[in-house]
Structure formats: structure tokens, C-alpha cells
Amino acid sequence: xxxxxxxxxxxxxxxxxxxxxxxxxxxxxxxxxxxxxxxxxxxxxxxxxxxxxxxxxxx
Length: 59
What we know:
By secondary structure, the chain is α+β, with helices and mostly antiparallel strands. The chain has one helix spanning about 50-55, and strands at about 10-15, 20-25.
């Protein structure tokens, strides 16, 4: 198995904007530039899991 498969799980956060509650996952490394990925309707944040595990050291 590669290291990406054993990476820690993301942290879950909620942001309140007007009357909406938005959920986001933080897969990144503190001090690195953010990389924002958006999913489409009928999908969920974990659809980006494999991608985020591979890029978490750089972002």
C-alpha cells in the first residue's frame, strides 16, 4: 500500500453563511496553500478522497 492510503482522515467543519450551513473537509497541511475542490449535485465531499490524500502534503 502507498502512504496516501494510510493518511489521516480529514477534519470536518461547518460554515454558516446567511441561512445556509455549508460543510467542508480539511485534508490539507497547515502552512501550505489551499486547494479548493467542489463536487457536483448528488455527490459528496468524500468523492475527492483519493485525490486529496495524494495532494495533502503540498496543499
